[in-house]
UniProtKB/TrEMBL annotation:
One of its GO terms (biological process) is biotin biosynthetic process. It comes from the Eukaryota. Pfam families: AAA_26 (PF13500). This is Uncharacterized protein. It comes from Cyclotella cryptica. The lineage of its organism: Eukaryota, Sar, Stramenopiles, Ochrophyta, Bacillariophyta.
């Protein structure tokens, strides 16, 4: 059951009213939940979740100023190597430790297509500035709520906000020629990675666990690193396998997800070791335990309840890992 706080409901209603007056459609994706942090000194009572969100950069800068004031407010983007790699699964997994959840959505379209196409076909464009404005306002609401609970009898309050992006790291935003408000002087769409880069929020990245996914995963990570993102964790959801026959009576099955995760570990460690020896700029560091492999999902239409329950320890480990990583930004 979804539980709502009266104050947050009022804030969300105000924001939704504002969004409706500016653009259609709107689905604000903020979820609120209460969690327990890995550090005793950071007992997390409160956490939020922003999903599938698509003003301008001044508001983003204002929000970032708040973030620096509230180091216990953990924030992460969820980017993926591609569509259908499991971003939503990872997003839900990251919040399973929380007993309470409140979810809304900022923007959505009925057409199952890329935002830049769906917004044009439905004649419901959303500019880059509108996206950034809406997300900044939503984050601001969360921060305002945090400030209002500062004096509660608690050791400390930790808030978690997760923003799930659309498609892959370089998938299009919803901007189109029909926008009245655009980013800069041109109408053309921006990539997801470019659209959100001004927020300086670290990333949970969902890799591609299929055959050929190593190249797609590395290309997407390079795109994020080149735009200044910190990638705190990479998660693969195992899927495809290839039966290679039997050798001495033992079936030889290649699990691409497991292989892709191990390949990424080897690549990151090798590049870092090589650059330490010869000097020069090192690629951004991803700890070995921050490259996580989750088991394959059950076949449709089997519900995911049992899968989530069976892997609850892994989800808690991811939650703790991200909390620990966030703390290092303020140490």
């Amino acid at each position: 059951m979804v539980e709502h706080d009266a104050m947050m409901q009022q804030q969300f209603k105000r924001r939704q009213k504002c969004h409706k007056s500016r653009t259609t459609p709107e689905r604000l994706a903020i979820a609120r939940d209460y969690q327990t942090s890995v550090r005793p000194s950071l007992s997390a009572l409160c956490s939020y979740f922003v999903i599938n969100t698509l003003d301008g950069f001044k508001m983003a800068s204002k929000a970032l100023a708040h973030f620096a004031i509230y180091p216990r407010h953990r924030m992460h983007f969820i980017f993926g190597a591609n569509t259908d790699v499991g971003k939503s699964i990872v997003r839900v997994s990251a919040n399973l430790p929380a007993p309470k959840l409140n979810c809304q959505t900022l923007f959505s379209w009925n057409t199952p297509a890329s935002p830049h196409l769906a917004s044009r076909w439905e004649n419901l464009p959303v500019s880059n500035n509108e996206v950034i404005t809406a997300l900044s306002a939503s984050l601001g609401d969360i921060i305002d709520y945090d400030a209002s609970t500062e004096n509660q009898p608690s050791e400390s309050i930790t808030t978690t906000t997760i923003v799930e992006t659309a498609g892959g790291a370089l998938s299009p935003s919803s901007s189109s020629p029909l926008n009245e408000l655009t980013l800069g002087s041109h109408w053309g769409w921006s990539t997801q990675a470019d659209l959100y880069s001004s927020f300086n929020i670290p990333v949970v990245f969902v890799g591609d666990a299929k055959l050929g996914g190593i190249s797609v995963t590395l290309s997407s990570l390079e795109a994020l690193w080149n735009r200044g993102y910190n990638v705190d964790a990479v998660v693969f959801i195992d899927g495809e396998s290839s039966e290679q026959g039997e050798c001495n009576g033992v079936s030889d099955a290649v699990r691409f997800g497991e292989g892709n995760a191990e390949a990424l570990r080897e690549y990151v460690m090798m590049q870092r070791s090589k650059q330490e020896k010869i000097g020069g700029k090192s690629i951004p560091y991803i700890a070995e335990d921050a490259i996580v492999l989750l088991p394959s999902l059950p076949a449709m239409p089997i519900p995911l309840d049992e899968w989530y329950e069976r892997n609850s320890e892994s989800f808690m480990n991811i939650h703790h890992l991200l909390n620990e990583k966030w703390c290092t930004y303020f140490s």
